[in-house]
Amino acid sequence: MAHNLQKVKNSGKDGNRPVTEYQSDLDAALATFERETGVQLDPFVRRTLGAKNFTLNSKKDRSYTHPFPFIMSYGKYVFGCVSVPADIDDGKSDFTNLYLVATRTHLVAIFNDPHWVYNSFFGGAVLKLLGAYEERETADIPELVSKILGFGVASLDHALDALSNRYERFAKKIKSVDKDDGLALEREVDHRLPALETLQIETSALGSVVAETARIVARVAAGQVETAEAEHPHDFFSEESKATLSGMQIHAAHLEVFHKSLLYDVEALIALLDRYQEKSLTIATHRVTAFGALILVPNLLFDYFGQAFNPLPDWLRASGFAVTAVATLAYWILHGLWFRRRRYL
Predict the structure, then answer these.
(1) Residue 221 and residue 105: Cα distance in Å, rounded?
(2) Phi, psi of 344 (to 5 degrees)
(3) At what angle do helices 207-221 and 141-175 cross, to 10 degrees?
(4) Looking at CB atoms within 10 Å, which of 22, 97, 198, 204 has the fewest?
(5) How do residues 254-290 score in pLDDT, each as one tens digit?
């Protein structure tokens, strides 16, 4: 069994572990890493991980995370972070961060989850992968890190697919509404707009993570992350790992384009709802105007003769009610047909 892999998690089944307990495990893992590799970790690394003697971004002993994927070379070791969305359903877009401190022979993997949720798709895959490598006599750490990066890209793909499916459902329902029914338009706006705005927030929140992950994969595939052991500097990632990451680079770049397209589609759908709202108000205004116009001529007729500007003609005096009713109905029918043709009704 290989002993050069270590895992540290800030969360458990019931949420985040107490900060002091997490820090104890973290410090023990980092101390073992330094002792076995002969390296001295930079204070920035310890501060970022929330080790002892450094302020951890916490509240009520629970660690909160923010996405910032990166890979940095510190000469004899590499420090990086794979960030994936942990929750895309409540408009907050919370993220799971997996920190990696690695040499070619040793790895410390630090899981940092929000206290209320975790990404089981990504976390389960990584833990299963680490378990498989632990049973080997030796572990190819660069290969392992490249696979973890692949899981990160796959997790982002999974999240974007979920957001895209939600967009498609919204778009299908919104675009099927009767455009001439003002009440239906108003109801559609009231019902869909809040959910669409939440979708916009969640999609937008993935922008920096998708873009930076794509850049990380591109840099690693090009061999731009290097580490130096003793007096013999060399690439951290092997040629085989770089070849794998080259294909992943295309996938990551595609996700970046897909994300921008999805965000544009969501914003366009919100703009469509705004137009629907304006149209519903226009239809309502047209209908009020139409009903007012329908009684305009009868009202003028009654007012004209009611004010006794002229005496009633004999033919109107003899059958005034019937003549007025027929004239009013004829006027309503003609103008009603005209308003319907103009879609004012």
Answers:
(1) 20
(2) -85, -15
(3) 140
(4) 204
(5) 888 888 998 899 899 888 888 888 877 777 777 777 6
pLDDT tens digit sequence for 24-76? 999 999 999 999 998 899 888 888 888 877 665 554 334 445 667 888 888 78
Residues in the chain: 345
Encoded tokens for 74: 């510190």
- Cα four-point dihedral sign 152, 158, 161, 165: negative
What are the extents of the domains in the chain? 5-281, 295-341
pLDDT tens digit string along 81-114?
A: 998 888 766 656 678 889 999 988 899 999 988 7
Query: Using CB atoms within 10 A of its CB, is residue 176 exposed (0-12), middle (13-18) or buried (19+)?
Result: exposed
Q: Would you say 255 and 203 are in contact if contact means Cβ atoms under 8 Å apart?
A: no
- d(CA 276, CA 274) in angstroms, rounded, equals 5
- Determine the Cα–Cα distance for residues 210 and 199; give it in Å rounded to an integer: 16
